[in-house]
Design a protein that fits this description.
alpha/beta, 12% strand, disordered C terminus
């Protein structure tokens, strides 16, 4: 296991917006970045957008974070220039395709090209590439050779093992291979991202500059990525004994190999069902061999506590697009005055990928008193209209399950209904703050 003491840094002051250029870094007194986050969405400083939320979370834990939103990808030189404009980050770079899978953002279910993108200024299509995680990861590798690289978000998370690609009508191997990732964050990324930052920070404090280290078997430091909940990584197949039933004190579940899934359709079905079941139950380590490398998946990370969730959503989000944008971003109209009171979903609907992304659970609930400040912060918006547009988790705002009931049942389709055990926090579909 990783053997260095993890540092605990003093929280940094939160800037009006996380920097996107060197000039913005200078304005807040930062001479360099610790972490660079790259996203396929426009930069909207709102907690409904994952990358800005994670960026502020990391700043709140003492790390200087910059954002590059929708780097130019059609010309490699321009893309590299966009990524390099704030300098090489000290610790690592993180990549996300954005709030929506890039292929879904570009194509309909009939494989017809979409003509707009709600997460781009002016709704213009084409500002992010197909399979954005792979493209952005390739640009980062060229801009910053040797820099540790992490990916997360819905696009990366759903491709953590062999998966069916609807647009190519074929099975593709884990995105860890094609994007050449060091580690992949599955589901909600706050804990995993912070753990990665602290581990790399501990190594950097010891050696001074991570760029002087030469990777050994894909790691800059022994067991650097080992045992981080909510992550997937590649290890040597030979490093896992063929008769091993446990790893790191947890039961090991072996999935059909990539080659088996290609050869036997039933093996692909069995592997996918096992992945979903284990993601829901959050107890075991999963392994999927692919030649001399194996995808190793840790159990999902523990959900944030009520106190942590309150603190996260109390951060000073401007709830607005970055001021550099001249055109409106269509997605902002819907979420500008939305208030998050809970996360997750207790259901297992067959058409929905949320449970496979982050597990079928519903434990993270904001306290009533701490949901009111975000409501008041949203009041000045023209779209406020005396109530929050959305209150709750984006895909499951009206589902209030019992955590005990969903934990006890292993069926993916199991649901618990409000009258079984409704949380004692805000539970309505709208949120009316008291007068200030």
């Amino acid at each position: 296991m990783f053997d260095l003491t993890l540092p605990a840094r003093t929280p940094l002051p939160q800037p009006p917006f996380l920097p996107t250029t060197r000039a913005e870094m200078d304005a807040i007194g930062w001479d360099s970045l610790d972490i660079l986050l790259v996203t396929g969405d426009a930069y909207v400083d709102h907690p409904s957008f994952g990358v800005p939320l994670l960026g502020r979370w990391l700043v709140g834990h003492g790390y200087r974070v910059g954002i590059v939103a929708q780097p130019r990808w059609k010309d490699e030189g321009q893309g590299i220039a966009d990524l390099a404009r704030m300098g090489r980050p000290r610790l690592f770079a993180g990549v996300s395709a954005g709030a929506l899978d890039s292929m879904l953002a570009h194509y309909t279910a009939f494989r017809k090209k979409r003509h707009d993108d709600a997460y781009t200024p002016g709704g213009e299509a084409g500002s992010r590439p197909n399979r954005a995680v792979i493209v952005y990861a390739g640009l980062i590798r060229k801009a910053f050779p040797g820099l540790p690289l992490l990916a997360g978000g819905i696009e990366a998370s759903l491709r953590r093992i062999t998966h069916y690609d609807f647009w190519a009508d074929s099975l593709r191997r884990s995105i860890l291979f094609d994007a050449r990732l060091d580690i992949l964050s599955c589901g909600m990324g706050e804990r995993a991202l912070l753990d990665v930052a602290r581990r790399l920070d501990a190594v950097a404090e010891l050696v001074g500059d991570l760029s002087v280290l030469e990777p050994v078997d894909g790691e800059l430091w022994p067991d650097l990525w080992a045992g981080i909940p909510g992550t997937a990584r590649l290890v040597k197949t030979a490093s896992i004994p063929s008769d091993a039933e446990e790893l790191d004190g947890l039961e090991l579940v072996r999935l059909p190999s990539h080659d088996e899934m290609l050869a036997v359709p039933r093996a692909y079905l069995d592997g996918t069902v096992r992945l979903e079941r284990e993601t829901h139950q959050s107890r075991r380590i999963l392994a999927q061999p692919n030649g001399d490398r194996t995808v190793l998946l840790m159990p999902p990370a523990a959900p944030l506590t009520t106190e942590e969730l309150d603190g996260l959503y109390a951060l000073p989000f401007s709830r607005r697009p970055h001021p550099s944008y001249k055109e409106p971003i269509p997605a902002v109209e819907m979420i500008a005055t939305s208030i998050t009171t809970h996360r997750g979903c207790g259901g297992g609907c067959s058409f929905c990928s949320l449970a496979l992304h982050q597990g079928r659970r519903f434990e993270e609930v904001a306290s009533r008193q701490n949901a009111l400040p975000p409501c008041r912060a949203a009041v000045p918006f023209p779209t406020w209209a005396a109530r929050a547009r959305i209150c709750g988790a984006r895909p499951a705002a009206s589902i209030l399950p019992s955590a005990d009931a969903t934990a006890a049942c292993i069926r993916p389709s199991a649901k618990a209904f409000p009258w079984i055990s409704a949380p004692a926090s805000i539970s309505s579909a709208t949120c009316r703050p008291r007068p200030a």
